[in-house]
Amino acid sequence: MGEAVKPGAVEREKSGGAGNRRKWGIGSRGLFRRVVIGVPFLWLAGLFLVPFLIVVKISLSQTAVAIPPYLPTFGDPSTWWSGLTQLTLDNYVWIASDDLYFNAYTLSLAIAAASTVLTLLIAYPLAYGMAKAPPAWRITLVMLVILPFWTSFLIRVYAWIAILKPEGLLNQLLMSIGLISEPLVILNTPTAIFIGIVYSYLPFMTLPIYASLERMDHSLTEAAADLGSPPLKSFWTITFPLSLPGVIAGCFLVFIPAAGEFVIPDLLGGSRTLMIGKTVWLEFFTNRDWPVASAVAVVLVAILVVPIVIFQRQQARVG
Amino acid sequence: MKSLGSIRRDFAPWIDPASSPFLRFEDVTKRFGDFEAVDDLSLSIFESEFFALLGPSGCGKSTLLRMLAGFEMPTSGRIILDGEDMAGIPPYRRPVNMMFQSYALFPHMSVAKNIAFGLKQERMAKGEISDRVQQVLKLVKLEDYAKRKPDQLSGGQRQRVALARSLAKRPKVLLLDEPLGALDKKLREETQFELADLQHQLHTTFIMVTHDQEEAMTLADRIAVMDKGRILQVAPPAEIYEAPKSRFVADFVGNVNVFDGTVRSATGGRVTIETTGGFDIVAERDVGVEVGQRVSYVLRPEKLKIAAEPISGPNVMEGEVWDIAYFGPVTSFHIRLDTGAIVKVAMVNATRQSPLQLTWHDRAFVTFDEDAGLVVTQ
Ligand SMILES: Nc1ncnc2c1ncn2[C@@H]1O[C@H](COP(=O)(O)OP(=O)(O)O)[C@@H](O)[C@H]1O
Ligand SMILES: [Mg+2]
Question: Which segments constitute the ABC transporter domain (chain B) (predicted)?
């Protein structure tokens, strides 16, 4: 009896309802999808694209003793056309012609790259240890990694001054245990910048690597061992390749902000290491040359867009 | 001469006093904290045997297998494989391979690379590796899938890759942890026979863990029924089914009626059991019992006969037809005795039409022969 009812029910669904429902489904889902995609899109356009275009426009303007300190300003609609004709690439030519900027860019990228590698070397074992810890501990360990975020970034960087300065905590400690007889000069050197960046960005490297290691099936390494592979070899053939998405995500999360970093080089690096963030700041506030400052920023964005696009491609492939 | 389950088996090294076991667990215990997952277990397995560990979930089957593979160390006891004590030998040096319950295929490697992984560890020559990969791919009928990644395969294909990978190194013992557990029913049945054929071709010793009694019965030369970290009985499938040594084994493997009672007389080859249900059972005696001893009588449903008319003689029960289910090859009846106990009867539909006419709530009579069931003392 039960069997006699079922085919009928299936039949009914097939003949009428399902078709209509599908048609309606597509319609409402289409609208829903547009809203879902549209909201963040408008958000990005309003909060990122428009300000960026304003910066691009300023970078094409000329310095002027005025408020704001550049021309043209596009305040009055009647002057828009003549304003457009005044836009110029002079600032970009200026940046290209002065070694100072080139050096700042290369130094920034080099420091960002080196500190990304250093961060990776510290974060990977950390994340590995966290992922291998008993499950009950893991939440606590993740909390410890993000604990520094509860304090202001600026204050934490200032704290490093207290640690690294010649009469600071580190030197006092090293001298009291007799390891050194004279204070080490760390503050206001590139070393201090590395320490600051590695310290500040460690969580951004650790967490994605931890996430990829933690969700890895433990039986994979057992299977590798079962098939005759010793532990270290299993790490390089199985564990590490499978954690690469996390490693790559972490590297981008560190490299991109580190390249434009201003606070850390300014507070810890002293005046001799001129990174690009500091350069923008100097142009903007010391020279009051907004157009050149904007041009420097636009070029930095252009340089970083390349790795960002690679990053996005990579993420899309993983997803 | 009679045989259990109407099968004559030619491969039976366990009854041959001249053959010595290939693999031995000797008083093996494994504790996790206070919990005893494997409890003082001893077991012998012979070369080329297809051995099944059968038991409910959590009874320690996987733990036993993992100790043999080297992922867990026994708390005490020894494991001896082909004359060699496995203690202190890491997993990557043991001559056994395991097919994991989750398959554990390497997701970033193609099917061929997965299979070649174990061979590369042996520093085998390139050409030899690819020959061997081709050979096992052919064995599991996946020649056309060598370049695919695991996530481009169906569940059944992944299962075969896992099997191929664990066979590629030609282990002395192949360990299979619920190898068919993730497949749907139809695929499982097909794969069962393929697995049996494969074992027959290769003569490798297979140890399979399963909680599915049908799977164990179909595939294994011998079955060990486990419960709570202990082995209750080790025997060929027919013996496990027809001559279970305990209530648990009888109950776990197949359907069974259990009548608890006390031995009233035990004379000659017969015992009479007074059951708690109030009726007497006269049975053939095949275990030593004493008068007054508490025993259980276990009786498979298909060994009972059912009739609509009263039957005379010993071993007759009467009750009401409580439930009927028609399965095709058999029709299953649940008869409710006047004491309230339910007796399961399976009638084989040997002919297309049956003279038996029974419907719900009819009176029915059930009888069985003296040697139909089994007296068990545990
Ligand atoms: N690493 C472990 N730590 C603690 N308990 C475990 C561990 N591995 C298994 N157990 C426990 O041992 C018992 C037997 O497990 P297992 O051998 O996996 O059973 P199964 O027969 O289902 O394969 C289970 O109760 C399980 O919870
Ligand atoms: Mg298990």
Answer: 23-253
Residues with CB under 6 A from ligand 1: B 32, 35, 37, 55, 57-63
ipTM of the assembly? Answer: 0.85
Minimal CA–CA distance to B169: which of B99, B227, B108, B265?
Answer: B99
Per-residue pLDDT of chain B (378 residues; tens, 9 = 90+): 467 766 777 788 998 888 899 999 999 999 999 999 999 999 999 999 999 999 999 999 999 999 999 999 999 999 999 999 999 999 999 999 999 999 999 999 999 999 999 999 998 999 999 999 999 999 899 999 999 999 999 999 999 999 999 999 999 999 999 999 888 888 888 888 889 888 988 899 999 999 999 899 999 999 999 999 999 999 999 999 999 999 999 999 989 999 999 999 888 788 999 998 888 899 987 677 888 899 999 999 999 999 999 988 889 999 999 999 999 999 999 999 988 889 999 999 988 888 888 889 999 999 999 889 889 887
* Dist. CA B157–CA B238, nearest whole Å: 32
Q: Which of B63, B96, B100 to mutate to test the interface with A (most CBs of A within 10 A)?
A: B100
Is residue A155, in this structure, part of any structural domain at all? yes
Q: Per CB distance under 8 Å, which residues of B are interface residues toward A?
A: 69-71, 90-93, 96-98, 100-102, 104-108, 117-118, 121-122, 165-166, 169
Would you say residue A4 lies in a domain?
A: no
Q: How far apart are CA A278 and CA A284, in angstroms?
A: 10
- Per domain, the residue ranges of chain B are 13-251, 255-376
CB atoms within 10 A of CB A148: 13
Residue whose CA lies nearest to ligand 1 atom number 5: B32
d(CA B66, CA B178): 13
Instruction: Give me the CATH code for the B13-251 domain, please.
Output: 3.40.50.300
Is there a domain that residue A241 lies in?
yes
Structurally, chain A folds into a number of domains equal to 1
Phi/psi zone of residue B340: left (φ > 0), alpha (ψ -120 to 50 degrees), beta?
A: left
- Which range of residues forms the domain containing residue A213? 98-318
Instruction: Please say whether the structural domain B255-376 has been given the CATH code 2.40.50.140.
Output: yes
Number of DSSP helices (H) and strands (E) in chain A, helices first: 16, 2
Number of other CB atoms surrounding residue A287 within 10 Å: 12
